[in-house]
């Protein structure tokens, strides 16, 4: 190194034999800053990082864990005031006195003063952010400026402004930056400010009395449980790594058939020679279905079934007889073994991804919408004016069926866990047409709302007495469409017990590739006309699939769960690294030089791969 202090540099890399490059660094005026005769790079496999995650691991991540007395709970709050709008209905649950502003609180300040921070009205996110942050900034400045508040804590309450659980979304984006703002203020004024985020569950409001006096600077309440952030060791823990590097892989169940044993196994067949009508797709996102959970647990009837039956990606090769797609086309559709970077698909079960859709959005559509269309129109033959009962209507197929039912002019009854009813109300189903999917009370409710008539069609995936109760709601000409696998019955026996009722259990694949492709194209057309809306979707990296599987097994989701698949780097490609992040790239190049301001570097994907590997480990 020859000089320090430059704010702009030029870097020249030149081949120096045996895979090495020479490095010459000069400042903006051409004066030498640093040089290296030869810089040799060595590939670092992801497996090496995983292997390093153990004893002495220096990587950490934040986890939200239940607050316990051992975590330092203080009990009792000597008085509580709420200042400003009570957006979340806190005055009553906290037993707080309400005040319009800090002036009104007066000189006798309670231990805890609460303010609510949330999106206001139907502003867009950008103006919503400004409004929320400006307001909280003024409140915090006012709070810290006055001596009378010195012995009290200001609690800033948000709802859905942070994600504290795997797969959780930040629902109030406009309020999310409030957390950043207040955390900065907390760093400068320890003990004066508390951040508290609550979800929609009724039990969470009740738990606020415990959450406020924890003495913790950041608290979240989820489903009535008080959580606090803690650093835990091992950033790589729980992250799956392909068993063999440089080969196609896919997510597969373990021999023990537990979610903990999910593995990224080698998938040589994904690179096999393509047969007639086949295309190879570089998968970028794949929809998770309940079927995948059953396969992973060894509970699916076909023990050879592969997980990953739908997704979205880019065509990378075409087989004989494929004329409608070319390499580079963005496609979505059905295939098997799709939880990995490559999948082989029958091109007839695909369609093009509409402009403006992300891969994750595209992957959330095929199975649920095509299944619902097939069940309602092809199997049940629904007619306008008929009535339909959709069970588990907040699930993927259920939400798709409710939307299609509107397109077909049906009257819809729906069941779901009561905690998911808001989602169905959002789809236009009123309280009279809603019932619980976890109680048999739906039979009586639907009978009374329908004036004793019941319904014309049932779309079912439940089992046992839920099926019996649903069958009793059907009369002459009624159709019972069973898509679940847990309780498939004999159509003849059902007809004998329920005269005039048709029972039909199905598997979508029976429709055949042409019909599936036609229905998928029709569905995309309905989206483009605005007749359908994409479902709420949560996305996990496929390397964290276990978390997504557990989320689905526990039925905590509404809409779709999607696994994103990391894009394979094109070895012929060029990677552009820009901005402040390039500092670490230059550091990595072996130039130990902290004063780099902003550098733009271009070099081969092979080098970039090593850089991105370095970025994921501070140790390296
Ligand atoms: N036959 C076919 O070709 C075909 C195609 C696609 C899907 N399916 C089947 O159709 C059903 C629905 O599919 P989907 O994609 O809509 O699934 P999903 O998104 O996972 O929704 C399933 C819903 O079932 C409810 N549920 C009731 N009891 C449950 C339990 N013990 N464990 C987990 N969830 C439970 C949950 O809703 P609540 O909490 O509201 O009760 C859950 O949201 C599944 O059984 C799936 O295998 C069949």
UniProtKB/TrEMBL annotation:
GO terms for biological process: fatty acid biosynthetic process. It comes from the Bacteria. The keyword DNA damage does not apply. Residues 257-563 form the Enoyl reductase (ER) domain. GO terms for molecular function: fatty acid synthase activity; oxidoreductase activity; zinc ion binding. Transmembrane segments: none annotated. Keywords: Multifunctional enzyme, Phosphopantetheine, Phosphoprotein, Transferase. It comes from Streptomyces violaceusniger. The keyword Repeat does not apply. InterPro entries: ADH-like_N, ER, GroES-like_sf, NAD(P)-bd_dom_sf, PKS_dehydratase_sf, PKS_NRPS_Biosynth_Enz, Quin_OxRdtase/zeta-crystal_CS, SpnB-like_Rossmann. This is Enoyl reductase (ER) domain-containing protein. Coiled coil: none annotated.
């Amino acid at each position: 190194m020859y000089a320090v202090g430059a704010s702009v540099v030029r870097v020249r890399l030149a081949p120096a034999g045996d895979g090495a490059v020479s490095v010459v660094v000069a400042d903006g005026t051409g004066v030498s800053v640093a040089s290296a005769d030869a810089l040799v790079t060595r590939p670092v496999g992801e497996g090496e990082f995983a292997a390093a995650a153990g004893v002495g691991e220096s990587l950490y991540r934040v986890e939200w864990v239940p607050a316990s007395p051992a975590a330092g709970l203080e009990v009792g709050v000597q008085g509580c005031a709420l200042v400003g709008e009570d957006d979340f209905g806190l005055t009553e649950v906290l037993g707080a006195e309400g005040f319009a502003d800090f002036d009104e609180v007066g000189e006798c300040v309670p231990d805890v003063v609460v303010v609510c921070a949330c999106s206001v009205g139907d502003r867009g996110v950008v103006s919503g952010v400004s409004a929320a942050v400006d307001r909280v900034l003024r409140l915090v400045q006012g709070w810290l400026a006055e001596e009378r508040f010195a012995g009290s804590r200001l609690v800033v309450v948000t709802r859905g402004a942070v994600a504290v659980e795997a797969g959780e979304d930040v629902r109030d984006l406009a309020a999310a930056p409030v957390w950043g703002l207040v955390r900065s203020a907390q760093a400068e004024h320890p003990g004066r400010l508390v951040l508290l985020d609550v979800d929609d569950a009724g039990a969470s409001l009740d738990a606020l009395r415990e959450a406020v006096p924890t003495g913790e600077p950041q608290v979240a309440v989820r489903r009535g449980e008080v959580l606090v952030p803690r650093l835990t060791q091992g950033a790589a823990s729980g992250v799956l790594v392909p068993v063999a590097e440089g080969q196609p892989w896919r997510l597969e169940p373990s021999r023990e058939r537990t979610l903990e044993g999910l593995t990224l196994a080698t998938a040589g067949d994904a690179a096999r020679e393509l047969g007639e009508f086949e295309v190879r797709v570089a998968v970028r996102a794949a929809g998770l279905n309940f079927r995948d959970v059953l396969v992973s647990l060894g509970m699916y009837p076909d023990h050879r079934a592969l997980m990953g039956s739908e997704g979205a990606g880019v065509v990378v090769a075409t087989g004989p007889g494929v004329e409608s797609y070319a390499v580079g086309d963005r496609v979505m559709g059905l295939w098997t073994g799709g939880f990995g970077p490559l999948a082989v698909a029958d091109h007839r079960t695909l369609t093009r991804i509409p402009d403006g859709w992300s891969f994750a959005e595209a992957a959330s559509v095929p199975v649920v919408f095509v299944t619902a269309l097939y069940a309602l129109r092809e199997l049940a033959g629904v007619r306008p004016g008929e009535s339909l009962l959709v069970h588990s209507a907040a699930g993927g197929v259920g939400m798709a069926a409710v939307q299609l039912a509107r397109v077909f002019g049906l009257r819809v009854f729906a069941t779901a866990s009561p905690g998911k009813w808001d989602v169905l109300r959002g789809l236009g189903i009123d309280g009279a047409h809603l019932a619980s999917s976890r109680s048999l009370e739906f039979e009586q409710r639907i009978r009374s709302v329908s004036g004793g008539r019941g319904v014309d069609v049932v779309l079912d995936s439940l089992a046992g007495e839920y099926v019996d109760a649903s069958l009793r709601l059907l009369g002459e000409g009624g159709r019972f469409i069973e898509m679940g696998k847990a309780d498939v019955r004999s159509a003849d026996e059902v007809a004998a017990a329920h005269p005039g009722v048709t029972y039909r259990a199905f598997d979508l694949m029976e429709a055949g590739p042409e019909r599936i492709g036609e229905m998928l194209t029709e569905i995309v057309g309905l989206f483009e006309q605005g007749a359908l809306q994409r479902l709420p979707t949560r996305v996990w990296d496929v390397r964290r699939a276990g978390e997504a599987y557990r989320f689905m097994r526990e039925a905590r989701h509404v809409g779709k769960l999607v696994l994103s698949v990391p894009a394979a780097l094109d070895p012929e490609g060029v990677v552009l690294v820009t901005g402040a992040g390039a500092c670490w790239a230059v550091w990595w190049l072996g130039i130990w030089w902290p004063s780099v301001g902003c550098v733009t570097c271009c070099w081969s994907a092979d080098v970039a791969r090593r850089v991105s590997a370095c970025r994921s480990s501070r140790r390296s």
